[in-house]
């Protein structure tokens, strides 16, 4: 992304899109009973509460009545339908892992099979987005979960810690290509969850080959354990490489959530909160998803930025938009065109002008 002299002025920034992840699949309800919903009615109401507080994107997982993460697509369908009816303008973003919680102590924490995850493209009613990982990656969420924050929670148990320490995110090229194809065929937008620069580079290569033709909505995840660590320079280097036409949201863990969201919003980007990312504030006190949204809204206003409404967030994310060619995709996402045969030097964006734009340009 490019920054000019007035790039940090709020009048030159889009409104803030706040994503909330209030279903924290790594926690059990008893870890934070005031904030982790269990019944379907509670899960729907949580979405309503978050929307009314200022969040316009709902990162959605589902629980069974025993409190464990659901792997039944019928439960996802039920929650999506309930949220769609209760808050129709909210962007519904299904977590592409479905649920990674181990079924019992000592069991591995695993994503479902590739084919089961492909079925997210067939959810009814369909969500607006499904999060998509790029490149298979280690996801040791225990690396930065310090013991003092785990005391008295389900993650304090050694067997559960061992299960989560060995977790990986499967996202190889064959699965990724097929998954994107199925999502786009069903009119569902992928929201790319990127663990570092390598993921961004792989995604760009896919765009340049025509394997994905649509808006690039990105989340940078700085949680360590195989992902980028919560080092601001990791984030800034990533920002520097992100094309100008993309959206970018920051995601981190525990006490790192607030500073990264503040940096992100100060630079014109977007924020993610919720008990999937943290259940504590900067003082180590329990901090609900709604409280996190309210804090984010306050900080955004102090920075001079307005909060996007549901409809405005849909426009910023270009929900429902797909492109017809590689060239159109590159141009729309602020990327330089592909090098043409015999072309020397660095390709310039001005080299790619559609027929319609050419007519408008030269008839003016």
TrEMBL record:
InterPro entries: Aldolase_TIM, BKACE. Its cofactor is Zn(2+). It comes from the Bacteria. The keyword Transferase applies. Keywords: Metal-binding, Transferase, Zinc. Residues 354-364 have a biased composition (Basic and acidic residues). Residues 336-364 are annotated as: Disordered. This is Transposase. It comes from Acinetobacter silvestris.
């Amino acid at each position: 992304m490019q920054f000019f002299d007035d790039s940090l002025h709020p009048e030159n920034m889009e409104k803030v899109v706040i994503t909330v992840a209030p279903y924290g699949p790594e926690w059990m309800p008893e870890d934070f009973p005031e904030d982790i919903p269990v019944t379907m009615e509670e899960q729907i109401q949580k979405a309503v509460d978050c929307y009314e507080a200022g969040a316009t994107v709902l990162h959605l997982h589902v629980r069974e009545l025993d409190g464990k993460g659901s792997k039944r697509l019928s439960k996802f369908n039920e929650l999506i339908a309930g949220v769609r009816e209760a808050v129709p303008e909210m962007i519904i973003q299904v977590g592409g892992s479905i649920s990674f919680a181990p079924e019992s102590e000592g069991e591995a924490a695993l994503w479902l099979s590739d084919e089961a995850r492909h079925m997210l493209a067939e959810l009814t009613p369909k969500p607006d987005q499904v999060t998509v990982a790029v490149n298979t990656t280690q996801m040791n969420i225990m690396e930065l979960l310090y013991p003092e924050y785990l005391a008295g929670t389900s993650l304090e148990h050694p067997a559960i810690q061992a299960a989560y320490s060995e977790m990986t995110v499967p996202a190889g090229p064959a699965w990724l290509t097929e998954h994107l194809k199925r999502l786009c065929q069903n009119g569902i937008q992928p929201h790319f969850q990127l663990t570092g620069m390598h993921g961004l580079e792989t995604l760009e290569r896919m765009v340049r080959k025509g394997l994905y033709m649509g808006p690039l909505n990105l989340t940078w995840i700085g949680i360590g354990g195989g992902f980028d660590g919560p080092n601001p320079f990791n984030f800034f280097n990533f920002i520097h490489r992100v094309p100008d036409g993309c959206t970018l949201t920051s995601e981190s863990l525990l006490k790192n959530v607030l500073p990264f969201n503040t940096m992100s919003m100060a630079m014109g980007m977007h924020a993610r909160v919720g008990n999937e990312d943290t259940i504590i504030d900067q003082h180590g006190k329990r901090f609900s998803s709604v409280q996190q949204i309210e804090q984010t809204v306050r900080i955004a206003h102090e920075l001079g930025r307005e909060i996007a409404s549901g409809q405005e967030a849909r426009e910023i994310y270009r929900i429902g938009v797909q492109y017809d060619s590689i060239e159109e995709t590159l141009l729309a996402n602020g990327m330089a065109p592909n090098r043409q045969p015999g072309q020397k030097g660095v390709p310039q964006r001005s080299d790619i002008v559609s027929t319609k734009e050419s007519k408008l340009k030269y008839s003016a």
